[in-house]
TrEMBL record:
Residues 89-169 form the ACT domain. PROSITE patterns: ACT. It comes from the Eukaryota. Keywords: Repeat. The keyword Repeat applies. This is ACT domain-containing protein ACR. InterPro entries: ACR1-12, ACT_dom. GO terms for molecular function: amino acid binding. PANTHER family: ACT DOMAIN-CONTAINING PROTEIN ACR11, ACT DOMAIN-CONTAINING PROTEIN ACR4-RELATED. Binds amino acids.
Length: 281
């Protein structure tokens, strides 16, 4: 315990990049993930995590001191499948309030993951904690959308638990936070869908909408249900917003304009809200 606290204290006060080259050994938890959100049960299997019904304001290892009068920064969780060919890169930012995230790394081990590299850096937007993650059983990057979503929700759950003030900036704060967002997630956040050409062999799909549990899995399912392949991408949670960028193709080629329209309309229908934008191509 003393070693862990000393390491956490070092990360909190050091402004240099910290690199962990030795992998953490994690084990698999086969519990089902059940998330109750707005009286609806979202089921992601077979990866398990726990959603804390109401976050405790008590200070913990992952907390840094803050003043109640401070402006609450926007929490960001990025799941990046593009930047590293061998690992899934996860980046977490919450102003300068994040500590060593030892509890988050311990939570990720229950998903059957190894953290093969971790680093922390500072810039004008705050402290960025980045992890390169692989599956413990194969040593490869995470490809399963359900496991990627479980990673995302595990991180958000820890934010709500160890930084309860973040609940006012997160969609899950509506049901599980000490203070829900002031915006009405279903009414105040517009949906945007765009498809761009990205060379002869693939297209770039961009989706921006209100966040909710299971969204990453649902987006991938809608795309693949119309026989479009998702090659790689990035899924960002920025406060109440979810932003997805997917490299997609149809039979190894870029998506032609009529199919782009089918894809965009399918996503708009699924994500339909009063302010959904009608994009043009």
């Amino acid at each position: 315990m003393a070693v862990a606290m000393a390491f956490a204290n070092f990360l909190l006060h050091s402004r240099a990049k910290v690199v962990v080259n030795q992998p953490f050994s994690f084990c698999l938890d086969t519990n089902q993930l059940h998330i109750l959100y707005k009286e609806r049960t979202w089921r992601l299997s077979p990866y398990g995590t726990k959603i804390i019904p109401r976050a405790s304001p008590a200070t913990t290892m992952e907390d840094e001191g803050y003043n109640d009068s401070d402006t609450i920064p926007t929490p960001k969780v990025i799941i990046d499948q593009d930047s590293d060919p061998d690992a899934t890169v996860v980046e977490i930012t919450f102003g300068d309030r994040l500590g060593a995230l030892l509890d988050t790394m311990n939570a990720l081990k229950n998903l059957g993951l190894n953290v093969v590299k971790a680093n922390v850096f500072l810039d004008s937007s705050g402290k960025h904690n980045k992890f390169a993650i692989t599956k413990a059983d194969t040593g490869r990057k995470v490809e399963d959308p359900e496991l990627l979503e479980a990673i995302r929700l595990t991180i958000i759950n820890n934010l709500l638990q160890y930084h309860p003030e973040s609940s006012s900036q997160l969609a899950l704060g509506v049901a599980f936070g000490v203070e829900p967002p002031k915006q009405q997630v279903d009414l105040d956040i517009a949906t945007h869908v765009h498809v761009y050409d990205d060379g002869p062999d693939r297209s770039l799909l961009y989706v921006e909408t209100a966040d909710r549990p299971g969204l990453l899995v649902d987006l991938v399912k809608i795309i693949t249900d119309i026989n479009i392949a998702v090659e790689s991408g990035e899924f960002d949670t920025e406060g109440l917003l979810a932003k997805a960028k997917f490299h997609v193709s149809y039979k190894g080629k870029a998506i032609i304009k009529p199919l782009q329209l089918v894809l965009a309309n399918s996503l708009r229908y699924f994500l339909r809200r009063p302010t959904t934008e009608e994009a043009s191509f």
